[in-house]
Amino acid sequence: MQSYAHLTDAHLVNNYIHGDEKSLEILVYKHKSKIYNFIFSKVFDRDIAEDIFQETFIKVIKTLKNGVYNEEGKFLSWVMRISHNLVIDFFRKSNRMPKFEASDDYDVFQFIKDGSPNAENKMIDNQVIKDLQNLILKLPEDQKEVLNMRLYRDMSFKEIAEITGVSINTALGRMRYAIINMRKMAQENKIILSQE
């Protein structure tokens, strides 16, 4: 590993593309803990995190071998985006429901509970969740991405900015526009997003 120590990610990627298998091993070794810890912080299960980590590098290898990698100098950000997308895929496939935060900014997501859930309240909650998911699907991609990362994955705006390659202010702006757009769509379609 000594002779590889001075090489940047871009050099290692280039070397791997040109047949040096050891370069990929160095890249994996160099970034494993950051990528694995990110995945684990979202799924909280070591086996699932390991599976997603391996799947991430299978995608990395396929992309590099197919010659379609063009994120020169931003290897780690690119791999983090791949792992993030695989985490989202995992949650979609397992149909886990998101946790919604309660705060003034996100009051569109708050549900008022009476403390004794009955069949009617459960039906209303389920409808609210379906309506909410339909509204999210109608958002522009950049807003949808930030909203999913923040609310469904409980990521900080710093993490979101890092993974999406934008500034924290841009990430915050996209979140704010997502909320404004969802409120507007809810009003236009007469969708009620909380129990009165």
Question: In short, what is this structure?
Answer:
This protein folds into two domains: 2-94, Orthogonal Bundle (Rna Polymerase Sigma Factor, Chain: A), CATH 1.10.1740.10; 104-188, Winged helix-like DNA-binding domain superfamily/Winged helix DNA-binding domain (Arc Repressor Mutant, subunit A), CATH 1.10.10.10. The protein has helices at 9-17, 21-43, 46-65, 75-94, 119-137, 141-152, 157-164, 168-188. It has 196 residues and is mainly alpha-helical.
Explain the overall architecture.
The protein has 196 residues and is mainly alpha-helical. It has 2 domains: 93 residues, Orthogonal Bundle (Rna Polymerase Sigma Factor, Chain: A), CATH 1.10.1740; 85 residues, Winged helix-like DNA-binding domain superfamily/Winged helix DNA-binding domain (Arc Repressor Mutant, subunit A). 67% of the residues lie in helices and 0% in strands. The protein is built from 8 helices and no strands. Helix 1 crosses helix 2 and helix 3 crosses helix 4. It is elongated and about 65 Å long. The N and C termini lie far apart (63 Å). About 10% of the residues have low confidence.
